[in-house]
Amino acid sequence: MIEIDGKRLHLSDIAAVAGGGTKVTLAPSAVDRMAASQRSARATALSRPVYGRSTGVGANRSVALDAANKDANVHGLNLLRSHAVDAGRVLDRETVRAMLVIRLSQLAAGSSGISPSVADAVVNMLNADALPEVREFGGIGTADLAALAGTALTLLGERPTMEGQDVPAPLDTWATEDALPFISSSALTIAQATLAHQRLATLVENLTTVSALSFAAMSGNPEALSPEVARAADSPAVTEVAGVLLGLVEGSGAPARIQDPYCLRTLPQALGSVVEELDALGTLLERLVVAGHENPLVFGSAEEGSNGVAHHGLFQMTSLARRIDALELAIGAACATNLRRISLLCDPAYTGLHRFLAGDDAGQSGVMMLEYVAAAAVGRIRANAQPVSLQTVVLSLGAEEDASFASVASSRMDSTVRALSTVVGIELLCASRALRLQGRTQGEFTSPRFRKALDAGLSLPADVQDRDLRPDVDAASHLAILPELGH
């Protein structure tokens, strides 16, 4: 059971809920905070116009709602129904669960003015795993209006759940004052980024270890990883990665060259850049999952007479789009070294083995085609690295003249994860095959982490005769996404 308090929510907890089976509950303090926010919003609405409560939205922001619509909740229901349209493929259950727990955490922050009963309904939906169907197209990085409006319709019983089961205790109606506050969030975009971030964190750890296997198989020169070089690095992340790599390759033997190719010599820079951007994205996500960014922002206390609202643009996910772009660029750049290491592992000049790690030199192709598969995956990663944060659009009769498109950046990160797992898996397959053929054993290496990775690689089929390598790639790619390569 994970308690949602609106103050702190670990990204790993989001991943745990998203994976299914982990329940959530609202902290009493969060319920009190939401109730106080609701009282403040109501008191403010009595004295001044409030966007979405007493006015229309978008280009209709200057249209005042009549008392009949407000009292009968007509406007709120109309807003949800009109904004619930999305299109494209249906998103997976894991992503939808992550969206719901993040939205719950944001509401618990107490800046929306929404009724706590709505948050309770989300808790029930999530714990019953009665999930709304959410499709891929709808958000543009200025709040996931379609996804959350559709969720609201499911909570009302107007839309079926993903598997057609009943929502526990569906809401009878939806107050106008709760409509815009519920959908004014980028919870889906943040959810997709969070899940991808967690997978990438594991992948990058495994990539670092697999790179060390390649380093050992090609008898790399550890001088490039030395403490003296690391201290001179231009980034703490590069310094850290150099130290990790040096520990991993300890005991790997005498270097074969005075100076290695870049794919070995600049490993700290290539991987350190990825780690740096991954950490920066993680820090931002940890803030976003507890951020009350609903527009308008509700603050103060009705009891103390300090209540108020502030209309703002914090829902514009500019920073998130930029952070994802930076991470994708770092991964795309680092992949050049992946491809080169895979290529050199096929070269007798670097391994002392047959071409393409084949069984003999009688024309066998060995792992030749794995270079092509890895290159195809890298092509996808590099395509995903084209910056999204430069995109924009003008909508709603010109009332909304910019958009971050963080939703696009976030949604395509899953594609990068899948492609990178293929690349890391192929390098693991090639490096472990090379070490096996060289007769290297675990006893030669001092690092437990290195030995675990080598053991994982050696668990792959040992047959080096030409054959169908698809099962090998599948198995290696699966290992690449498991913590510590599955050991």
From TrEMBL:
GO terms for molecular function: histidine ammonia-lyase activity. It is an enzyme of class 4 (lyase). Its EC number is 4.3.1.3. Keywords: Lyase. It holds the Pfam family Lyase_aromatic. This is Histidine ammonia-lyase. InterPro entries: Aromatic_Lyase (IPR001106), Fumarase/histidase_N (IPR024083), L-Aspartase-like (IPR008948). Gene3D superfamilies: Fumarase/aspartase (Central domain), Fumarase/aspartase (N-terminal domain).
